[in-house]
Amino acid sequence: MGALCDFCAEQRSMVYCRSDAASLCLSCDRNVHSANALSRRHSRTLLCDRCFSQPSIVRCIEENVSLCHNCDWNGHRDSASASEHKRQTINCYSGCPSAAELSRIWSFVREFPSEDDSNCEQGMGLMSINENWASTCWGEPGSNSNQDVIMNQMDTMDKFNPWIGSYSASSANALQNRAQQADPMQSTAPKLCGSGTKEVEIRKSDFNEDFQVDDVDLTLEDYEELFGGSHNYSGQLFDDAGIDSFFDLKETSGANSNCQGDIPEESSAGCIKSRQQACSNGADPLPSNPGSKADPSASFPARQAHSSLSLSFSGLTGESSAGDYPEMSSMLLMGEPPWYPTGHECSSFPAANRDSAVMRYKEKKKTRKFDKKIRYASRKARADVRRRVKGRFVKAGEAYDYDPLCQTRSY
DNA sequence: GCGGCATGCGACACCACATCTCGGG
DNA sequence: TGCCCGAGATGTGGTGTCGCATGCC
């Protein structure tokens, strides 16, 4: 039995709307997202069958369950047999499709009740089933945002798999190995990376494209700051205090760590906090002014030189975009590929645990600071359709310059 | 090195009103 | 104890404004 619908609290929730941060039953999903043109653009996907709290990104054919990235990763990473499970990416959708349409795009789900579509104002006219989107397609494809990076990665995953729109753990591992083996800053030679089921040739140019190196936000140095100081503390990452306690530890011990030798005198937590502020800026992920506060690499020249793995993960981070792309922030976290730097002197940290810790840390940080939480969806819906003058709400009936129900704005 | 100016960016106020909360009957 | 009612508080999003930080001359 899954979670109840966040809206009616009666029906079992089936889909997850990231824009509303809500799990909804199909009926409420259609009602809520047929309210206006804006809400119709919300991208939704199936709810994870395991945690019932995150949007699912893949369908495990073997287990016949839809899984979010976290549950997928946790459920398939360890067992050799489980890792070979065939998984199919789950498309998201917008608009207010009928049950039949949903059944068409999610053919594996047999639970869609047939409902009358009459309550949808414009029905399928505005519906856009994003067949070509990967499971991490929150937002509009083609926009210059972090999700493109995710899309690239998902596309990359598909390349490793003979059947379109799906991937297996082996291919994910291949991608991971690809990230681990390729040194984008130096080597350009092709490398072979065994996937377990298929060998693929790794071209560094592809790798670089996927990584969006220039899009600086959270670099691997952050990871080193977070987890690289002394991995003897790894166990403490998994207690309730999570990464926060780790910060405390690092503040007291980081100076003596091999990995912290080049760190400026300010505390690691302080560094990260300042970076978060800079990253949360997000309005201009590519600051035109090098050396500005939004350029973390410029703030840490010593550490930049310290690590040859100063790749940017900016496109994958939640904090970089949560403010600007709230509807996709969580998805970014969940969709983050399970790679991480290896070969570093401090990389004795178990890889899987480390990835899990990173994910948990980001999730916690997101909910703590960067995700605007909509407490009352009804009020949001009301505000979405309320008319404004220069951004201010106006009385009903008064002249207005912004009609949210109209696609084109007049100023 | 210092001051003035320009620029960029974050924080915040503003607006209406449906909804929520809470105390009293 | 539970219900009802009314007053007050709350929250919602787009835009403009202000102040601070930074860079340049």
UniProtKB/TrEMBL annotation:
Location of the protein in the cell: Nucleus
Pfam families in the cross-refs: CCT (PF06203)
GO molecular function (one): zinc ion binding
Statement: the UniProt record of this protein carries the keyword Repeat: yes
Domain CCT as annotated: residue spans: 354-396
Gene Ontology BP terms: regulation of DNA-templated transcription
Record keywords: Metal-binding, Nucleus, Repeat, Zinc, Zinc-finger
Single GO cellular component term: nucleus
Region annotated Disordered, chain positions: 257-301
Residue intervals of the B box-type domain: 1-47
InterPro entries: CCT_domain, CONSTANS-like_Bbox1, Znf_B-box
Annotated family: Belongs to the CONSTANS family.
Name recorded for this polypeptide: CCT domain-containing protein
Organism: Asparagus officinalis
